[in-house]
Amino acid sequence: MTGEGARRLRPPNNTLDRRAIAWWRTQWLLLTAGPVGVLAVLGALITPARVWLLVPAVVLAVLGLACAALIPGWWFRVHRWEVTDEAVYVRTGFFWQEWRIAPMSRIQTVDTVRGPLEQLFKLATVIVTTASSKGAVRIEGLDHELAAGLAEQLTQITQATPGDAT
Q1: pTM, full prediction
Q2: pLDDT digits (tens, 9 = 90+) for 132-164
Q3: CA-wise closest residue to 115 among 127, 123, 107, 106
């Protein structure tokens, strides 16, 4: 589109809750702790293979700690979301950033999910399901009360939005 009708895609305005950084760090640490623990226990129990088990455990632990220290802050700077009367906008990613736009007229369901770690950090995920083959649009790392309000707001907007006939 060109001319006056053209709109420039801009980053969505809203950041996630800062607690999402600690939530992501905890996920990285838990993901790392399992394999490191198994390797360390096996290394302690199997003397002939001790070096072959403990060296990978240390390498994996260092990599996991580095990821837990660096990646969540980067994700926090990249992840954005916004809801307008026309659509839900989400930008996520790491090396490959993804922008998702869900027009209100295409939204089928709005769900709020809170896993055990999210509950611990008082966070929630809003899942906006459309007819897209790409799947649902997810807004992760929201304050749980904000997520509940957002789900209610989206439900009201989609009910007031005529469906897309295409």
Answers
A1: 0.84
A2: 778 899 999 999 999 999 999 998 888 877 765
A3: 123
